[in-house]
Amino acid sequence: MTDIFSVQNRIAVVTGGLGQLGTQFSKSLAEAGANVAIFSRRPFSAAQVEEKFPGLGDRIRVYEASVTDKAALEAATGQLIADWGVPHILVNNAGIDSKPDGSAEQNAPFEVYPQKYWDDIINTNLTGVMLTSQVVGSRMAAEQRGSIINVGSIYGLVSPNQALYAYREKRDGVPFIKAVSYAASKSGLVNLTRYLATYWAPKKVRCNLISFGGVKTGSFDKEFVDNFLERVPMGRQAEIDEYNGVIRFLASDASTYMTGSNVVVDGGFTAW
Ligand SMILES: NC(=O)c1ccc[n+]([C@@H]2O[C@H](COP(=O)([O-])OP(=O)(O)OC[C@H]3O[C@@H](n4cnc5c(N)ncnc54)[C@H](O)[C@@H]3O)[C@@H](O)[C@H]2O)c1
Predict the structure, then answer these.
(1) What confidence tens digit (pLDDT) does each residue in 96-116 have?
(2) Ligand 1 pocket, 156 CB below 6 A?
(3) I need a surface site. Which of 49, 98, 235, 250 has the fewest CB within 10 A?
(4) CA distance 22 to 246
């Protein structure tokens, strides 16, 4: 029987594929038989790949490229095509956010929020997706096939609720405001996705967005997690591997009639 979820021998690019979720996406696609090219800001040797992804060293390669650097993206994509061929799948996963434990100015009230943090986050999360799609997606379009999967967030659909973060000011005595940049960058992906979906539909390149909720990583304060979970109908965060299924779905022929959509995977956070 044909497996409509198969990604066997497809070539996938995963940006930021050494991060928490990127590692999961790269591993899951490689275990399903895809060849996975991770675009990473830092070099990562074949020996390190084998150590991080045991038994998958033949299926995963790391190419050095920042998503904000078009020349580096061109070079990495050229090398990847020489090594394996033109990608079928692009997962625009690389992303940054203001650090909850960062400086007070990174989490400053909107009135005095420094533009440099806005620029960094918009450059990576929005411009980076545009540039990577331009470089990799153009090659896919020339082949008349491909699936681009953008990684969004619930904060691209609704504003952060500042009440979730109010414990910080009470605890630390300095203002803490969840900044505007991440939300604005991820909401930009909603229509960048629609734009690419319609623009490349004649070339048979699909483009969809996944809006993820919070993941259980152990890196958040207990107070934040407790506040957050009160607003999640399912009452829990996603397990670290719980988004792999939707990536696989959008990468495979199980989703061939889907383009321009926003798949919300958030335990119901945005449903009430
Ligand atoms: N973790 C969550 O709860 C959550 C929720 C919703 C959405 N997301 C989104 O999922 C994606 C992955 O998040 P994560 O939690 O795994 O974060 P992470 O920080 O663990 O991983 C992000 C990766 O992107 C890489 N990266 C950053 N800037 C880059 C650049 N310019 N070029 C190439 N790579 C770059 C980082 O080095 C890192 O490896 C992000 O887009 C994030 O916004 C995460």
Answers:
(1) 998 777 788 999 999 999 999
(2) no
(3) 235
(4) 13
